[in-house]
């Protein structure tokens, strides 16, 4: 018989151990907490949390994976519809082990393993939001790109306004330049008329 990789084997063989863990996980999901030995509780914790991770995905493939371990459809339905949404914001640690002393008779150390269904505290929620922000850095980059584009558009509009201002000022200067020319021509006409009157006066 092969030697188990993690601690002592819980049953007579590997198949017996797999069935025992599956039954313990089904009882945990059904009753939300069970009392067992410390050794079984420690071996059950990663097994049950892996099934909860499958339930959090919620797709058909994950449901079939869990149904391959737990044969009761009602327990699997409860896991996917009630337990998984309750721990959706948690990144792990779906179970809790509490030691309760030794059992009478064989003096085996006992423990209570239960599902952690309480909502996250304020500190844990802040940490979870920070981890999600680190995991998605693309959103701040898009937000910072928008003000840059707006600044470029503002500069373009300012340039267009200055061009329009220079175009409107140019005709004003031309009219101002034209006015002295008009006055000069009127002065020449007056002088010519005076010269024409002068010979007549001499006669």
TrEMBL record:
* Gene3D superfamilies for this protein: Ribosomal protein L17 (3.90.1030.10)
Q: Which GO terms describe its biological process?
A: translation
Region feature Disordered, mapped onto this chain = 136-203
Q: Name one GO molecular function term.
A: structural constituent of ribosome
Record keywords = Ribonucleoprotein, Ribosomal protein
Query: Which PANTHER family does UniProt cross-reference here?
Result: LARGE RIBOSOMAL SUBUNIT PROTEIN BL17M, RIBOSOMAL PROTEIN L17
The UniProt similarity line reads: Belongs to the bacterial ribosomal protein bL17 family.
Name of the protein this chain belongs to: Large ribosomal subunit protein bL17
What is this organism's lineage?
Bacteria, Bacillati, Actinomycetota, Actinomycetes, Micrococcales
